Amino acid sequence: MLSICSCSLAPGDFGADAKPPGSDVRRQVIQRVSAVVVTETGAVDRWVRSGFTGANAPKDADGGSATPISADGYFLTANHVLSHAVGKKIFVLYGRRGRFVSSRARIVWRSRTADIALLHAPLETPLFYEWTPANRWLAYGTKVIHGGISTGLRSPVGRITTAVPPDGTFARHHRFKIDIPLQPGDSGGPIVDANGQLVGLNSSVEYLVPMETPFFIESEGTRPDVSMIRGIIRADRARNNRGSGTGSKRS
Q1: What is the pTM of this model?
Q2: Average pLDDT over residues 20-25
Q3: FRET pair for 53, CA 20 to 30 Å: which of 7, 145, 166, 247?
């Protein structure tokens, strides 16, 4: 009986790191906070320089959060952040030395089913996230915070409520749950553990609304196949070094 019960548990159901992300990790998240803006407007520099005042905001601005994952301008975001991007311009706003730097960005790859998109902007991005080890389970109860632009700067410490298996186990990309409420604009932001390493991206949030009173249930994150993303980046760099086209891919 004991043997059978033990084997029925996934490795990620136990062994969570009880250490919460501390002030140093929160500071790293603040320093790297990044956003995606989708608009018909040709530039957003004036809006950024004004401190995002409403008077200078693009009238049709849409978007969400972004997560820098390399030193040369590659960002991940949630694919649904780009749902209205057809025929419009995409900008990345990257946090650097206490201010935002803006740049046009292009879609390198995206997946509707996984709700992940990879963007590239011609920016130096020295502050970026390293992934948690791809060959390890992320256990139920692992403490995390998030870095979405709407609520990430004041994100409470939460936890993963469904274990995340090693990359390439069961599925190419993994959906998982966290117990931190998200707001519009947080999608695509980083979910970070106590070591400041990237677990995955904010994807969605679920509320129950009985009698018009919403109750938070859980939020969902997505962890892409990290080796796959790295391969796409390597191929994209090679194409650009050869000066060939930079069209987007979709799955």
Answers
A1: 0.86
A2: 95
A3: 145
Classify residue 168 by burial, with Cβ atoms within 10 Å: 0-12, 13-18, 19+: middle
Q: What is the pLDDT of residues 132-173, one digit of tens each?
A: 999 999 999 999 999 999 999 898 999 999 999 998 888 789
Rounded Cα gap, residues 145 and 115, in angstroms? 20
Query: 82: number of CA atoms within 13 Å, CB side?
Result: 28
Question: 114: Cβ–Cβ under 8 A, 6 or more apart, which residues?
Answer: 79, 172, 173, 222, 224, 251
Tokens of 123: 């920016």
Which among 35, 225, 235, 233 is positioned nearest to 111, based on CA atoms?
A: 225
User: What would the two tokens of residue 22 be?
Assistant: 């501390």
To 10 degrees, the CA torsion angle through 209, 213, 216, 222? 50
